[in-house]
Specification:
The chain is an alpha/beta fold. It has helices spanning about 1-25, 30-35, 60-70, 80-85, 100-110, 130-140, 150-155; strands at about 55-60, 75, 90, 95, 115-120, 145, 160. It has 2 domains: about 1-35; about 55-160, Rhodanese-like domain (Oxidized Rhodanese, domain 1), CATH 3.40.250.10. Strands 1-6-5-2-4 form a 5-stranded parallel beta sheet. A two-stranded antiparallel ribbon has the order 3-7.
């Protein structure tokens, strides 16, 4: 029985000494810096932006209607001008995706970058509003909501429209 305990004690001692050797080897630079009093070079911490990254926010009919009623957002129609003239949300501005580059200087002169924007197009199958939103994000606008139901959902709800037979 004494032989068993001697062997156990020897193995435990060997494991502890091996762990100490590995720890010293692994952390040699850190230990040397602590011993000499020099600060160790900490890994760079990730920078956190003071302003959160802007993203497109999907918005439902109720939220969009509330913004419309309170006049807290600029409504942008991403559809072609000809489609816009046949019917659009009352008070909306036509900013077709295809004409963005030519219309952008005039738009940025009228609409401040911090203004809420609600962008819509022809409903759930239309992606022009998202594409327009992404381009406006790249240009510096930050408060962009995408009304995925678009003009058809607005019209079906009986909300104010212009240019169509009501």
């Amino acid at each position: 029985m004494k032989v068993f305990y001697k062997k156990l004690f020897f193995e435990m001692t060997l494991i502890i000494l091996l762990a100490i050797a590995i720890g010293i080897t692994w952390n040699f630079r850190l230990l040397r810096a602590a011993y000499t009093g020099k600060p160790s070079a900490a890994p760079p911490s990730p920078t956190v932006s003071a302003t959160p990254a802007a993203v497109l926010i999907p918005a439902g009919l109720a939220q969009v209607k509330e913004l419309y009623d309170k006049k807290e957002a600029v409504f942008l129609d991403a559809r072609d001008s000809s489609v816009f003239s046949r019917g659009h949300i009352q008070g909306a501005t036509s900013l077709p995706l295809a004409e963005l580059d030519s219309a952008l200087p005039e738009f940025t002169a009228k609409v401040p970058y911090e203004k809420n924007l609600v962008i819509y197009c022809s409903g759930y199958g239309c992606h022009d509003s998202k594409d327009l939103g992404n381009k406006l994000l790249q240009k510096g606008y930050r408060q962009i909501l995408i009304f995925e139901g678009g003009y058809p959902e607005w019209k079906d709800a009986g909300f104010p429209i212009k240019g169509a037979i009501q």
